[in-house]
Each structure stands twice: as C-alpha cells, then as structure tokens.
C-alpha cells in the first residue's frame, strides 16, 4: 500500500468529479471540514475541499498532515490568468508560490514572509513534473474530456500548459486595474488564486511535497465573474478529474 496522498480542491464542483472516481470513500469531519478517505487506482487517497482563502487553506493543509498523515499533496483548482498568453482554458502548473498580499514593510521586504527570509516557496519538483505530464496529456486529448459544445462555448481551441510562478492572496482579482497592478509588481506571475501559497508555506514547514495545478477560468479583469459557475461545472471539474485520473494511473 502506498503512503496516503491528499487531493485538494478549492470548490465543490471540482472535488465532486474526483470523488466520483473513488469507489469506496468514507467521510470524516475534522475542524468543520469533511475529509473523504478512499482509494483511486490503488493509491490511498484523502480528498478534501480546502475552503477559500489562505487561512482556510493553511488549516486544511495542517489537518491533512497532522491528522491524516498524508505524505504528498496535490491541489487542483482554478485561477485568474495574469501572464501574457495565459488564457481561459489553459492550465498553470506551479513551480513557485508567493503571497501577493504579504506586506510587513518596512520591517521586512515587500512579499517576504516574516521568519522565513524568503518570499517564494517551491513546489516539489518530482511531483510537479508528474502533474505537468498528466496535465499536458489531458490537454492533448481534450475532446475526450470536454464535449465539443462546451469547448466552443468557452472558445477552448488549443489550450496550453504553462509552468512558473503562481501567486495567492485573500482577494478575488476582478478588475483590470488590479490585475495590471499585480502584473507590474510581479511580472513573472502566471496566474492568481487564493490558496496555493498558503499550502506551500505549510508544506515547507512540514517538508511535505506539494504540487498545484490551476485551470485558468478568467483573466482577472473586469469580466472575471462572467460565466464563472458554468466554467467550474463544465470545464474545470472535467479538467481536474482527468488530470487526477491520469496522475494516479501512472505508477
Ligand atoms: N480564482 C479564479 N479566478 C480568480 C481570480 N481572478 N482571482 C483570485 N482567485 C481566482
């Protein structure tokens, strides 16, 4: 039997598709969260919703490690695109994480996490390489996973997989002014979401490997809210399920 792996999503629609792949899941509630323990392709899995935002994410990561003894964490979710060419329907696999709203200046440098002497945390290289392979494979076979009508409704023609910096903060970025400011301040950032960097800090504390994949649901601009629930239901949940299925199918 393998060491337990955590599969985490931020939103119910994404996790539902993953749970549907687990034949034997059993629920357990800890800290007001429901954790589903079960198996997927022979792997012992603990699946959970992270909740939204950095505090909810940090609590979830800590419970997964302390209570459930998970030895790897994989996070699937959605994010707003920031980098040039990071479009709706693309996928971003994180290599580093940063909290864009961390600011203890002038005591510490802007974005530096006090006590750590750094502003970025790394994803686990080996797990991230596996997750990127699974994501690229899913995109290559997109018509198998996402029906034609949905692909054309969202203009998903040839989505690509990007790897790099993912930034997190306790804010849904939904104005062009704000996304421009983030792009100016953090030009390497590919996408923005609300949990990844919190998971990365906790995983750093416990030395637990982390990999994060995010489907781009919007461009973090004035139209960021348009069709968001439909995108989650019809695109992001299918991407997540296909990526996790491929990831855990491999040895
Ligand atoms: N998750 C998906 N889109 C996002 C955005 N624009 N800002 C923050 N988190 C997101």
Textual characterization of the structure:
It is a single chain. The chain is of the alpha/beta class. The protein has a domain at 77-249: Rossmann fold. Helices cover 36% and strands 27% of the residues. It is built from eight helices and ten strands. It has helices spanning 12-19, 54-66, 125-140, 142-145, 148-153, 176-185, 196-206, 228-249; strands at residues 5-9, 26-30, 33-40, 43-49, 72-81, 91-99, 120-122, 161-168, 189-193, 210-218. Strands 5-9-8-6-10 form a five-stranded mixed beta barrel. A hairpin with a 2-residue loop joins strand 3 (33-40) and strand 4 (43-49). Helix 1 (12-19) packs parallel to helix 8, helix 2 (54-66) runs parallel beside helix 7 (196-206) and helix 3 (125-140) packs across helix 8 (228-249). The longest helix is centred in the last third of the chain and has 22 residues, at 228-249. The mean pLDDT is 94. Bound molecules: adenine. Residues 78-80, 172-174, 192-194, 217-218, 220, 224 line the site of adenine (ADE).
């Amino acid at each position: 039997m393998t060491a337990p792996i955590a599969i985490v999503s931020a939103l119910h629609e994404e996790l539902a598709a993953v749970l549907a792949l687990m034949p034997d899941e059993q629920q357990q509630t800890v800290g007001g969260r429901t954790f589903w323990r079960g198996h997927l392709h022979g792997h012992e899995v603990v699946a959970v919703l992270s909740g939204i935002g950095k505090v909810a994410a940090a609590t979830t990561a800590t419970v997964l490690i302390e209570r459930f003894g998970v030895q790897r964490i994989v996070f699937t979710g959605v994010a707003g695109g920031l980098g040039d060419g990071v479009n709706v329907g693309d996928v971003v696999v994180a290599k580093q994480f940063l909290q864009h709203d961390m600011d203890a200046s002038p005591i510490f440098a802007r974005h530096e996490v006090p006590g750590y002497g750094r502003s970025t945390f790394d994803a686990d290289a080996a797990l991230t390489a596996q997750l990127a392979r699974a994501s690229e494979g899913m995109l290559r076979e997109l018509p198998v996973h996402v029906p034609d009508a949905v692909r054309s409704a969202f203009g998903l023609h040839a989505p690509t997989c990007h790897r790099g910096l993912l930034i997190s903060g306790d804010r849904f970025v939904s104005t062009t002014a704000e996304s421009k400011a983030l792009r100016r301040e953090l030009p390497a950032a590919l996408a923005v979401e609300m949990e990844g960097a919190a998971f990365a800090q906790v995983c750093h504390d416990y030395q637990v490997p982390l990999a994060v994949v995010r489907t781009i649901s919007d461009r973090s601009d004035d139209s960021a809210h348009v069709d968001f629930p439909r995108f989650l239901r019809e695109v992001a949940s299918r991407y997540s399920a296909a990526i996790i299925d491929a990831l855990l199918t491999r040895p």
